Amino acid sequence: MNTNYYKKTLDLSEADSRQLLTLGDSLIEKGFLRQFSGSETKVLLYLLTHRKEASEIEIELPLAAGALGMEIEFLKSALKGLARTGVINQKPAEENNFFRCFLNLEAVLKKNENKKVVEESSTAGAEIRKQLINSNSASKNEIAAALISFLPPASRNIHRREEIKSWLNDFEAKMLKELVRRVDKWLKRQGATDHLQGAYAYLKAIIDSWYQEEITTYEKLQQQDKLHRETKELARAYGIRSFSSNTAQLKTFQNWLSGEQALSKELALAAIREAVRRKRDGQPSLKYVEDNFINPIKELGINNLADFRRWLQKEMDGKAAEADSRDQAESDSGAKKQKTKKDKAKNKKKNEKDDEDSYKWKDFFIDFDKYKE
Question: What is the largest CA-CA distance in the chain?
């Protein structure tokens, strides 16, 4: 014989109660109540606890309406709705103030088992999560139902329920509500509206990271999310487009943004951009950025962009003065070389002219003896 030590019962009866109703959690989770509207559910509970004989029921409409807080017309409408589902078969009533019917639970239960209304529905889980995400407050039971909706029906066992129960004790409800929102968003990106192979694994990975990083409050979660977003911004500014959150580079960025000497995102971004601008022969290494910008910023206690720009300008002015000195020396040297070159060219031209003149008179000869008298 199988013994279920987990089974618990809650007795809401009074000493003078004559009929008791036992409704199991597994039946509810399989969607038994989902096929009825809110008013129909109220009326069904009334009928189930007011049986006359076996499956036969007879109620006085005014008494039932008073007990349920409903107008008689609304009560009659709900009874008609229950008849349409097949859970009751209405009998003709001889008096207007009475309603008679037979229960037909077997047919409804069989129909429910075949369809598996909640577990097999393509929208049941999505609807449960939507209600939780849009609610201003949520009970632990509602959060647990939303979390378990990511699991395939066959995996919704006692072990998983106990696991989810431990999460409800370890994390703030607001965190778990945010967890449902994130996994639901991921699920929609995959093109699914209900449980999908891998959805619970994705959810479990997030939970494990929370345990590892000791994030147990919503405030800490927000801080971690902020650090993650800013780290990605630094990575993009540095030139990283595709990355994993566990890479050494991202750990370096996180170290810049956290700890006792944490920099603001704006300062870290300015440091990276300046390093990239100065390092024109290729992408600067993170050590170059750290040694030349990050560490000096921390050591000097620079905590805003204005101070950073002033420090940077001072550094650049010094570099510029050295550059101007070198440029002037190179300019003077170049001018001197240019002058020497011009003088050489001028002398060469003059010598060539002298040579040409010398050549002309060299071959010119007069025989003066020939013209003697």
Answer: 182
Q: Which overall architecture, per CATH, does domain 25-115 show? A: Orthogonal Bundle (1.10)
pTM above 0.70, yes or no: no
Task: Give the N- to C-terminal CA distance of the chain in Å, as an integer.
Answer: 167
- What ranges do the domains of the chain cover? 25-115, 124-216, 220-308
Q: Which residues contact 238 (CB under 8 A, 6 or more apart)?
A: 249, 253, 272, 276, 283, 286, 289
Both structure tokens of 334: 């170049």
Tens of pLDDT, residue by residue, the chain (373 residues): 444 545 677 888 888 888 888 887 777 776 777 778 888 989 999 988 888 877 888 899 999 999 999 999 989 899 988 888 888 887 776 677 889 888 887 766 665 554 444 444 445 778 888 889 888 877 888 898 889 888 877 777 888 888 999 999 999 999 999 999 999 888 888 876 666 667 888 899 999 989 988 998 999 898 888 888 888 888 888 887 765 555 777 788 888 888 777 888 898 888 888 888 877 767 788 888 888 888 888 888 888 888 888 888 887 655 544 433 433 444 455 555 565 666 666 666 666 555 555 444 344 333 434 434 4
